[in-house]
Write a structure and sequence with these properties.
Strand content: 25-35%
Distance between the termini: 36 Å
Number of domains: 2
Helix content: 10-25%
């Protein structure tokens, strides 16, 4: 993430910390106030908290990623808490405790024991070239495919719906991590492991490729 986006996210974070609502009359305002409160408390969790895993956060990953950057580069604190949108992807490390925000406070939580079909067919072929990431997913013609990208090996699990074949602007300047997910029309799902692309994989034409398949 470049510095411009860090400053934008910092401004957002400071705004969320500073917001105070003294009187609330409508249900909409009540929901907005609770959302701001949750964002502020979750932000404090990332900025100053100990090593732990926060499940199902309320904001986009860029918000927490920016706070992690501020924590490590401005506050000079060691890596602390991290967020996880899908507990089937973010398996906790041995020393991490799991929490989830509920009704104004953090409560202990646990990872899902139902993480789809671990033996279902899934194929992933993707490569980085000319400032873009290209992928082809299979083998299913029906259903939906998702991708969770990350700049860190500990992927957050924030998935984005993608076509089975496509591309997206992505300059491969350092190690990048991805998890792919497929959801069938019947509702079952399956995941890839965490896959990695890095500049060292580039060939003579400047293309970095990776292919993975199950069955």
């Amino acid at each position: 993430m470049n510095k411009q986006w860090h400053y934008v996210a910092l401004g957002l974070g400071l705004s969320l910390f500073a917001v105070g609502i003294k009187s609330i009359e409508s249900p909409t305002m009540l929901r907005q106030a609770e959302r701001v409160k949750q964002s502020r408390i979750e932000g404090e969790f990332i900025l100053t908290g100990n090593k732990a895993l926060l499940l199902h956060p309320s904001e986009l990953y860029i918000y927490y990623q920016s706070l992690q950057w501020i924590r490590e580069n401005f506050l000079k604190l060691p890596k602390g808490g991290r967020v996880c949108y899908d507990s089937c992807v973010c398996q906790p490390q041995a020393s991490e405790r799991l929490y989830q925000y509920r009704q104004g406070q953090f409560v202990s939580s646990q990872v899902s024991e139902h993480c789809g079909k671990e033996d279902a067919d899934l194929t992933v072929s993707f490569y980085s070239a000319s400032g873009a990431l290209h992928w082809q997913l299979g083998p299913y013609q029906r259903g939906q495919y998702y991708i969770a990208p990350s700049e860190r090996e500990l992927v957050s699990g924030q998935f984005y719906l993608v076509p089975s074949q496509g591309s997206y602007p992505w300059a491969l300047s350092k190690k990048s991590y991805f998890v792919f997910k497929y959801v069938s029309p019947e509702g079952w799902q399956t995941y890839s492991p965490t896959l990695m692309l890095e500049p060292a994989q580039k060939d003579a034409q400047g293309i970095a490729r990776l292919t993975w398949k199950r069955h």
